[in-house]
Design a protein that fits this description.
By secondary structure, the chain is mainly alpha-helical. Helices cover 49% and strands 0% of the residues. The protein contains ten helices and no strands.
Amino acid sequence: MRTQMIFGVVVLGLALGAPVNAAQVTPDPATQREFAARVNVCGVCHGNNGVPKSGNIPIIWGQQENYLVKQMHDFRSGERSFEIMEWMTKTLQENEQAPTAANLAGRRWPAKAQNAPAAPAAPRGIAVCQSCHSANYQGAVQAEGMTTPRLAGQNYEYLVEAMRRFADGERTNNADMVQIMKGISATDRDAMAKYLSSL
C-alpha cells in the first residue's frame, strides 16, 4: 500500500509538472497581451507603420536587433539619457528586452517616399562610417561582437543630432563614436547625415 501511495504521488507530481519559473519563459508579444501592449506603445513615437512621428525620432523597425538590445539596456541603466526612453525601457521586464528588440528588428524598414530626392554625392569623410556600419550602411556585427546600427535611410534630423551629441560628449554610450565625431566638423556631419538619410 505504501509503495502505491508513493507511486501515486510521483505520478501526480509528473502530471502536474514542476512549477514554471517565469524568468525561464521567453516572453512573446504575439501571445501575451500585456507584453504586446507595452511593445505597441513604441508606436506612439516611433510610428505604428515604422515611420516616426517626427524626424528627430529614429526609425527602429528593421533596425539591427543587437543594437536595439544595447540601446534599451543603456537607457535602462542610465548610460544613455533621454527621459521618455529611460521610463519606457523600465516598463519592460529584464527578460522582455530581447524579445522586444527581436520583434522590432523583424519588421520591415519603412520604404522611401516615392518623391524623395536622389541621394547627393557621397560627402567627404563618409568612408569612416563604412568601416563599422558596412559598405551599404545597413549595420553589421563587429569582430568584438558589438552590432552597429543601420544608418541608410535613417531620419536626417535624428542622425545629425546624434552625431552632434557624440561630438559634444553629451552621448557617451559608444566611446569610438565620441572620438570619431569629435574629429569631424559640424558642416561635414551635416553633409554625412543628409547623404545617409537619402539612401
